[in-house]
Amino acid sequence: MHSWVVVAVAPTIFAKNNSAQKEGKIPDFDKDFIRNMKTQNLNELGREVRNLTRATLRVDEDMRG
After folding, report:
1. How many folded domains does the chain comprise?
2. pTM strictly above 0.70
3. Which residues in 49-65 are b (16+ Cβ under 10 Å) and which e?
4. Which helix (H) or strand (E) holds 65?
5. What would the pLDDT profile of 23-42 be if each residue is shown by its tens digit?
6. Cβ atoms 20, 26 nearer than 8 A
7. Is the CA virtual torsion 56, 61, 64, 65 positive or negative?
8. Cα separations in angstroms, 15 against 9, 19, 36, 59
9. Could you give the CA distance from residue 35 to residue 8 in angstroms, rounded to a whole number?
10. Could you tell me which residues come within 8 angstroms of residue 16 by beta carbon, excluding any fewer than 6 positions away?
11. Range of the domain at 16
12. For 1-21, how does the pLDDT look when each residue is reduced to its tens digit (9 = 90+)?
């Protein structure tokens, strides 16, 4: 769903940030998008680590009987 928003908005943003790109800078829109992607990845990683911890605890409890 998020990617559709980016696709719909990107042409407008690109026109505004073209000068920044020509100067070799990363436009704020792109920085925000990259930051969002990193945050999502960190959230997913955190969720997976919590799931792994729970699974490990269940195995430990099962082995101790």
Report:
1. 1
2. no
3. eeeeeeeeeeeeeeeee
4. none
5. 888 888 888 888 888 888 88
6. yes
7. negative
8. 11, 8, 21, 55
9. 19
10. 27
11. 2-64
12. 444 333 344 444 445 556 777
